[in-house]
Write a structure and sequence with these properties.
Strand content: 25-35%
Low-confidence stretches: none
Largest sheet: 6 strands, mixed
Helix content: 40-55%
Distance between the termini: 78 Å
Order of helices and strands: HEEEEEE
C-alpha cells in the first residue's frame, strides 16, 4: 500500500517538475525573442534615420517624413523595402525606398516616387519612424 502511494507521489512530483521546466523554458524563449525584436527594431530605426537624412539632402522643401509601419525584408537580395510618406511645401507623395541590410553599406540604393523637386532642404523636418517615435532632423 505504501509503495503504491509512493509511486503516485513520485509520479505527481515528476509531472509538476516537467510542467515547471516547460513554463520556465517558454518564458525564457519569449523574453529572448522580445530582446531580439527590440534590437532589430532599433537597427531599422537607425536605418530610417539615415534614409531621412539622405531624403532631406536630396529633395527640396521637405516638411515631414513618415515611415510606414510595414516593411519587407527580401532575404534573397539582402534589401529592406519600406514606404515613406513625404510632405513638402507643394505636395504630398509616397516614396518607396530600398536599403541594404549589410552593416557596412548604410546608403539608400534606390527610391521610386514622383512629384519631388531635387535640392537640399535647409529647414528642420519632422520625422515619424516605423515604431511611432518622432524626431526632428
Amino acid at each position: 500500500m505504501k509503495r503504491a502511494i509512493n509511486k503516485w507521489v513520485i509520479s505527481i512530483f515528476a509531472i509538476i517538475m516537467l510542467l515547471m521546466i516547460g513554463i520556465e523554458g517558454k518564458t525564457y524563449m519569449d523574453n529572448d525573442k522580445k530582446k531580439y525584436n527590440a534590437q532589430q527594431m532599433s537597427e531599422i530605426v537607425e536605418m530610417e534615420r539615415i534614409a531621412a537624412k539622405q531624403i532631406k539632402n536630396t529633395f527640396l522643401e521637405i516638411e515631414e517624413i513618415t515611415f510606414s509601419e510595414k516593411y519587407k525584408v527580401n532575404k534573397l537580395t539582402g534589401f529592406t523595402n519600406i514606404n515613406v510618406e513625404i510632405i513638402s511645401n507643394t505636395n504630398q507623395t509616397n516614396l518607396g525606398i530600398s536599403f541594404p541590410s549589410e552593416e557596412n553599406s548604410k546608403y539608400l540604393t534606390s527610391y521610386m516616387g514622383k512629384g519631388l523637386k531635387k535640392g537640399v532642404t535647409e529647414m528642420p523636418i519632422k520625422i515619424t519612424f516605423s515604431d511611432k517615435t518622432e524626431g526632428d532632423l
